[in-house]
Automatic annotation (TrEMBL):
Gene3D superfamilies: 3.60.21.10. Residues 1-154 form the Calcineurin-like phosphoesterase domain. NCBIfam families: PRK00166.1 (NF001204). InterPro entries: ApaH (IPR004617), Calcineurin-like_PHP (IPR004843), Metallo-depent_PP-like (IPR029052). This is bis(5'-nucleosyl)-tetraphosphatase (symmetrical). Its EC number is 3.6.1.41. GO terms for molecular function: bis(5'-nucleosyl)-tetraphosphatase (symmetrical) activity. Keywords: Hydrolase. It is an enzyme of class 3 (hydrolase). Belongs to the Ap4A hydrolase family. It comes from Methylomonas paludis. Hydrolyzes diadenosine 5',5'''-P1,P4-tetraphosphate to yield ADP.
Length: 264
């Protein structure tokens, strides 16, 4: 019963199939954890959504920014760009079922037995695991409920600071931004969405989210999509999945192993 965490697929169905062949994936016995950004960029977003949805309980899927972008476009709150590859999804006969399935996905998955936690971007340093799960549920319950359109209409990516008294859309927007967009942080924990690229090229004071001092989830093993290309040295308990290029698989075990589709 192996479990594999899969990096961002980004609409590349052929590479995903090649990776699953490489790990000899058995859909009746094995489990896949997808870290979000299943879709967009590549040409096969519709095929990927159908494939992962049809895996049922054999797959765990976390929301990334591309899934939220699709939901906002489908609801009429964003306009698609020329680079977006959502058109087949938006015109598919099973469009509504696929969008509803996406709205029911989580922002975080924690396996207490394995002590592995999956998110797309990471977990703010000030949050304990209990808080992280509770705050994620606040967003998940709105997105999967009847008021999801209001959430998407009020979706903003400029909420970068957190405090316990945040309420309403500002609170939900920070939680969503942290789980889907967070990369670098300032010393006070404020999110910085403009910083990207290797750690050694960043200004003094910026650090990857997982290097925040006194991070409350330092005891966890956290898997996330390395959209920033941190190019960092190995950091205990942190497993960044490559978010650029072909997808890869992290086999969850006592000694997690990263596997690439074209690896010999």
């Amino acid at each position: 019963m192996p479990i594999y965490a899969i990096s961002s697929v980004k609409g590349d169905y052929a590479s995903l199939v090649g990776l699953l062949d490489k790990i000899n994936f058995n859909p009746e016995l094995d489990y896949l954890w997808f870290c979000g950004n299943l879709i967009n960029t590549g040409p096969d977003s519709l095929e990927i959504l159908r494939f992962v949805k049809n895996l049922g309980k054999q797959a765990i899927t976390i929301l990334g920014p591309q899934e939220l972008r699709l939901l906002s476009i489908a609801s009429g709150f964003l306009s698609a760009d020329a680079a977006d590859t959502f058109s087949e999804i938006l015109t598919a006969p099973d469009r509504d079922a696929l969008l509803k399935w996406l709205r029911q996905r989580a922002l975080i998955h924690h396996d207490a037995k394995l002590n592995f936690t999956l998110t797309h971007a990471g977990i703010p340093g000030a949050w304990t695991l209990s808080q992280a799960l509770t705050f994620a549920y606040e967003v998940e319950s709105v997105l999967s409920g009847s008021n999801f359109a209001s959430f998407l209409e009020n979706r903003r990516q400029d909420q970068t600071g957190w405090h316990a008294k945040l309420r309403g859309w500002k609170r939900l927007n920070f939680i969503t931004n942290a789980y889907t967009l967070m990369k670098y942080c300032q010393q006070n924990g404020k999110l910085d969405f403009s910083a990207t690229g290797p750690l050694h090229k960043q200004p003094v004071g910026l650090r990857p989210w997982y290097r925040q001092t006194e991070r409350q989830t330092s005891h966890l093993q956290i898997i996330f999509a390395d959209e920033a290309n941190f190019n960092d040295t190995h950091y205990p308990g942190i497993y960044p999945l490559p978010a650029h290029g072909k997808p890869a698989a992290l086999k969850l075990s006592a000694m997690p192993t990263l596997i690439f589709a074209d690896q010999e």
